């Protein structure tokens, strides 16, 4: 049975955006604070490594279910559980690759059970790693699909940017903000030096990328 006080943290994002590293760092942070914390690995990665291939359409739902089963199993043992992805990412890739949107309902029902949803920013360089990596060209379309899916379902989320220890600090700030009492007027905002409002930060990030370099 799940511990009633289990804090569920979901890390979402396109490939090569630092989900695995951040999940481990968050679990280590909470462990250092004296809380029993577990980082739950990505079921899809394990599946691909075991079979040395990517899954077929009919194998997508069992993988999504296994990811969520791992989260539930960890919550039965720990106070804090950090998911290195959730069923949401399996559903999005299934829709992209196979035009199969049947996993969305299951994925969103599960996503609403998380206390915190963090979306990884696209500011880290793409790195080839494993069979399930498609390439840097798919990161922005996937990122847009995640935002659209969460927004349409009214699942609150916050975006994490930065590299190294800065990314961890920003993730911890986002977790604190997500858990803080909300009011109707401020539910989707986060006041700090790095705006993480999903309604504005992505446009700002794209504008910064599109700006020409300063003249020397």
Output the keywords.
216 residues; alpha/beta; 5-stranded parallel sheet; 8 helices; 45% helix; globular
Question: Spans of 5+ residues with little confidence (pLDDT < 50)?
Answer: 183-197, 211-216
Spatial strand arrangement across the major sheet: 2-3-1-4-5
Shape: globular
The major beta sheet can be summarized as: 5 strands, parallel
Structural class: alpha/beta
Radius of gyration: 17 Å
Report, as a whole number of angstroms, the end-to-end distance: 62 Å
Number of helical runs?
8
Order of helices and strands: EHEHHEHHEHEHH
Give the helix proportion (percent range).
40-55%
Strand content: 5-15%
Mean pLDDT: 85
Total beta strands? 5
